[in-house]
Amino acid sequence: MLRVGVIGTGMIGEDHVRRLTSTLSGCRVSAVTDVDAERARAVADVAPGARVHDSGEDLVRDGEVDAVVVASWGATHEQYVLACLAAGKPVFCEKPLAPSAKECLRIVEAEAAIGRRMVQVGFMRRYDTAFAQLKRAVDAGTIGAPLLVHCAHRNASVPGHFVADMAITDSAVHEFDIVRWLLDDEIVAVRVLKPRANGHGRDVQDPLLILLETAGGVLIDVETSVNIQYGYDIRAEVVGESGTVELPQAGNVVVRQSGGVTALIAMDWRDRFRQAYDVELQAWVDAAAKGGATGPTSWDGYVATTISEAAVWSMGTGSRVPIKLEDRPVLYAVS
Amino acid sequence: MLRVGVIGTGMIGEDHVRRLTSTLSGCRVSAVTDVDAERARAVADVAPGARVHDSGEDLVRDGEVDAVVVASWGATHEQYVLACLAAGKPVFCEKPLAPSAKECLRIVEAEAAIGRRMVQVGFMRRYDTAFAQLKRAVDAGTIGAPLLVHCAHRNASVPGHFVADMAITDSAVHEFDIVRWLLDDEIVAVRVLKPRANGHGRDVQDPLLILLETAGGVLIDVETSVNIQYGYDIRAEVVGESGTVELPQAGNVVVRQSGGVTALIAMDWRDRFRQAYDVELQAWVDAAAKGGATGPTSWDGYVATTISEAAVWSMGTGSRVPIKLEDRPVLYAVS
Amino acid sequence: MLRVGVIGTGMIGEDHVRRLTSTLSGCRVSAVTDVDAERARAVADVAPGARVHDSGEDLVRDGEVDAVVVASWGATHEQYVLACLAAGKPVFCEKPLAPSAKECLRIVEAEAAIGRRMVQVGFMRRYDTAFAQLKRAVDAGTIGAPLLVHCAHRNASVPGHFVADMAITDSAVHEFDIVRWLLDDEIVAVRVLKPRANGHGRDVQDPLLILLETAGGVLIDVETSVNIQYGYDIRAEVVGESGTVELPQAGNVVVRQSGGVTALIAMDWRDRFRQAYDVELQAWVDAAAKGGATGPTSWDGYVATTISEAAVWSMGTGSRVPIKLEDRPVLYAVS
Amino acid sequence: MLRVGVIGTGMIGEDHVRRLTSTLSGCRVSAVTDVDAERARAVADVAPGARVHDSGEDLVRDGEVDAVVVASWGATHEQYVLACLAAGKPVFCEKPLAPSAKECLRIVEAEAAIGRRMVQVGFMRRYDTAFAQLKRAVDAGTIGAPLLVHCAHRNASVPGHFVADMAITDSAVHEFDIVRWLLDDEIVAVRVLKPRANGHGRDVQDPLLILLETAGGVLIDVETSVNIQYGYDIRAEVVGESGTVELPQAGNVVVRQSGGVTALIAMDWRDRFRQAYDVELQAWVDAAAKGGATGPTSWDGYVATTISEAAVWSMGTGSRVPIKLEDRPVLYAVS
Ligand SMILES: [Mg+2]
Ligand SMILES: [Mg+2]
Ligand SMILES: [Mg+2]
Ligand SMILES: [Mg+2]
Q1: How far is the centre of ligand 1, averaged over its atoms, from the C-alpha of A122 (Å)?
Q2: Omega within 30 of 0 (cis) for the link into A322
Q3: C-alpha separations of C242 from A252, B155, B225, B259, C142 in Å
Q4: Which of B196, B198, B221 sits opposite C221 (nearest CB)?
Q5: Interface ipTM
Q6: Rounded to the nearest whole angstrom, what is the distance from the C-alpha of residue C27 to the centroid of ligand 1?
Q7: Fewer CB within 10 Å, N side or C side of chain B?
Q8: Would you say D283 and D127 are in contact if contact means Cβ atoms under 8 Å apart?
Q9: Is D37 on the interface with B (CB under 8 A)?
Q10: What is the pLDDT of residues B116-127, one digit of tens each?
Q11: Which ranges carry the Gfo/Idh/MocA-like oxidoreductase C-terminal domain (chains A, B, C, D) (predicted)?
Q12: A67-99, pLDDT tens digit by residue?
């Protein structure tokens, strides 16, 4: 029975506490903490026997904590993940691994120095059934070699504190990771184009069209629309030499009503990926119980953030920005 | 240039006048008539040079009429079709060929006595691209031998004069014809089941579930819903030994809006089958120009009406009603 | 931590052992048994600490078994479920509850005598996301009052020991349960129609068209096809007064290839309902941990088997068979 | 009865001869010509009474020719269209209007000098039902102001003489025209990106990703894939402020077979747009019968070719190429 401590009990942290307590196998939440102590106490009530700590560092030190979920504000990720590594405790860190490539790199170096995987980054899409099918079809050669990928990442609306960069750092970062994984290929350049702005987006430049190039010559276009009103919708089509493979419409019931045949779409992203979050965290629990980690690595987290930084730069300048990565430690060598 | 006379200039008759005048090749409307003389005159204005007759018989006799479209009230079909046969003029008769099997049979006998095809019945679905593809797939053995057919025939609403029988005689009669044609098989029995009635249907028993059995052992279920509000929707799926083949959703644009992915559906049946009507009537024009007829025969019209009569009987009694057909004249032998 | 004993470690029993061990929260498998002792031992290896019993009765008596899953051959269900009730242990029994209504009734009576729910029957569809959405749409009045339901239950193929009745007792029994649940209405009659047989089915009469009538006047048609080759496919459309609501195509990726746009379909039913099985059994674990049961009741199991018996009778005779139920104990009163 | 002369009786020219002869209303083919005289004679046989001319100029002069269809090799378009204008005869010219903007401009100037429309350019998509629905939805404000358009133009394969430019000048030129029309907006810049090449394309750089910017700030991405094997597929999705609207899958039957639910796709572009070609040419016949023209103008043809030239330039250099247009004659003022 893995005893998990959860740092950060906001919306996603609370979801993970419930998941670890009531849904997953082989784990329980033994400790929580949050900058908002009252909120931490409220969430602790969901997890029988969970104690509340004053700080993430205290939680990491707790002898009844075998492994840690970091779901706090991005700016604090580095310190908590490094604390876990120092304590030799497996850690699941929500995406992005850290807001800057520099911070991510320090995590990579710390883990590489240990010499075995301790960190899993929360890119849950890799655990989604539909994305897994997409990868399987690509890997099986169903469509020949991949040449293009068309993606769209659409949110019905975003909260008031949303700023333009976040369409890259919070939204498109999922695409940055997933296309690397889908294609087993590395992104070498990015360019961000800005069409006319959506009137629902106040001052935010929305949508964006982000173009990625891979080392292997694949071109990827990613639409991010963060105020599109109609729902939360994730689309991806890989175009190959002899065909394409595409995510399905999220499989909801079909209503015939008022002049239309309508497949319902989720408004909330958590509904779309609920099962992926379960599978993702179960995979982490299973690996952490053996002292290690699986799935998206610190290196993946570092690369995704590096691409985000380049994309933010491109959004400002309009130019094509090449991606420069540090040398990849052998720990993260592609198998 | 085939000179066509049109008897009956109601909604469908007027459509045919426009089609013959402005859309089809090798024809023009030279004469029209209607019980409502004023309406006949108004419609004649659409067709340059068309004269208006006082009666269908006058129109048939007109030396400037080479061939006739009968689109008048069903009860008058027999007299006008027989007049055309007597005059040796090819005739296109809207479905049903006649309201009773007895009337249809007199047409069959008159045409059989002539010994060559002169009559085409207006079962336009046979000319619809999607139905043609359905038949092609069945005939090609794509799904193995057909075993079941599931059909639905849905109208958003029906006019105030609609009575329960018409869900059979006006709506399901299309399915009676099309499954015979799809399967190259004959209907041998019918049973009509009545679920709880739709509140939008006033006194009309709606919907119905109609079960057909063929000589070859295929079972067909047909839902007729004549007040289903949401649109005009025709569906059919043929279930075979190794798969199924199904009509597509009518191919309208797909709107993502307000929590749904919606394929628009026609409210009006004329939109759904507009192209089929064009192809159907062009086929008739081309055959009539050579003095003959093609497509659905008088015999097909007689059989469809016979099934309608049995179905109406079953609706009253709830029992399974076998279909008894007269001997098929050699003129209508299956090729 | 609920300690679960599993009786029957065939395909579905083994699935449940893995699920209880590696996927679900708050439970572990403490004991297993099977008529095939070797198989029981092999499956026990999947569940650390599980002991192997010689008989179901031994397992039920085991002090380290808090609750029981019955996944053995249907003919043994009654004895094991009654043993659990006698021992005061919550029990999850795979469908059907028992092969005959008489056996089911004895379980109902035994549970009713205890006066609180102890039994959950394995109708997993009620826990499927898409079926849940279907029910939510119907209950919300999205389509007005339901009038008709069209269902299809298709298996690619069935094993050699399959006999014709099993299309009813093993397959359509799922539809019998789910339409009662969807409509909150009771089945009052059934009729089974037999079309021409599928050549892939050897001597088995396949497919069937099963017609159900509810007390409220809803008509349901269920196609069962057990040798349809192309895949495992479950379809349902509820037709209401102003529209319809339909299960989605199982949400697999879409491949454009070789002249077609193809949504992949599962060949194996376990893939289609994998998540439903997880949710179903977690619900049981959570209720059993409190000493009770939730979801489909013994009464539901009894009714489903009663309808199966009537349907088998109708398949033999071709006649409409009314459903007669015993009085419903107050324990199972509709809330 | 409009007497039409057809210059060029290759594949598309022959199609038009058949269409004018057997499908459309109010016209017949009175003359044909082709560089391959034998082919011209063979095609003339399809059109009763059509004579064969030695040259396009002869055909234009023919007193029995009221209006002309130019379906010859692109390099000859200018001379034949100018000949028609000189003779005062309405002309339908297949796309592109001419291979270079300079040639197109001479046509524009000649027509503008006459002061009324005489030329219709063969951008048939504007007459396609689905594209018309797309425009109607955009114009109705269904999705708010348009911000992005995603297009794909895919051919199963291309003939041996195909060179890389043709993916722009022959394929994407349709998208250049249709997005201008859809958005009522002008293209101001183009950039062509080249991913890794499809192995099926021999030396041809295939696919391309073409980016267009409009005066109003809309960004359009167009994938051209000319060797994608699986079929002919045209896709377009307009992304607006509150939703999107998308072309349907071409509405073919759906086959359930071998592990998939497959909507069939045309291999041949003529199947996809057959009806659009009919409607397009009927519109021309109707306008030509009155001495004028409708639909896509010479100006539209000039603009499309100008964008093609810029795109070809960009393909060579990789840079963003601004579009510079001459002043628009008042004849082509937007109404
Ligand atoms: Mg995540
Ligand atoms: Mg008709
Ligand atoms: Mg079950
Ligand atoms: Mg064209």
Answers
A1: 4
A2: no
A3: 20, 11, 10, 20, 8
A4: B221
A5: 0.95
A6: 27
A7: C
A8: yes
A9: no
A10: 999 999 999 999
A11: 135-322
A12: 999 999 999 999 999 999 999 999 999 999 999
